[in-house]
Amino acid sequence: MTDRPPPCPETILVVDDDPAIRELILVVLKMNGYRVLEAASGEEALQLIGSFPAPIHLILADVRMPGMTGRELTEQARQRTPEIKVLLISGYTNEANFHEWASLRGVGFLPKPFNVEDLERTVREALDGYCLRNTPSKSQLHDAVISRTIP
User: Is the pLDDT of residue 14 over 90?
Assistant: First the structure.
């Protein structure tokens, strides 16, 4: 676990049809200070993406799920929100052209099984580009601190 919360309030949508894996990932991400949403299917994830009132910065999804695959979810989510980051997980990496497809689309990949440190590191790497582009200026930070400390 990292020693401090992420530098910006990031929201991660975890999508996996296996409730045990989903719960493990949720616990680790929450312990690291992320806001976490969950979905058991690609269809449910797309509904959340369409209805959640704040930005979702990262989709962390299994490649193989019943119904909509992680690949299909990536394509449909990016049609709605092109800047959304995606990290796919799977125990099956021999899918034809998967790695080429992921690389061309800037999609990260974490093979199963993985340990907590691998999950933390890979999620942080996937999100770093977002926070670096969207870090508030010093004056914005100053205004935010003033507005929170003075009634």
Answer: yes
C-beta separation of 107 from 75 below 8 A: no
**Predicted TM-score of the model (pTM):** 0.79
139/11 Cα distance (integer angstroms): 24
Query: Can you give the residue ranges of every domain in the chain?
Result: 11-149
Task: Give the CATH number of domain 11-149.
Answer: 3.40.50.2300
Q: Which of 75, 70, 86 is nearest to 127 (CA)?
A: 86
Does residue 113 have a cis bond before it (omega within 30 degrees)?
Answer: yes
Give the tens place of pLDDT for each residue, 61-71: 999 999 999 99
Res 147: pLDDT: 35
Give the separation between CA 86 and CA 113, rounded to whole angstroms.
Answer: 18
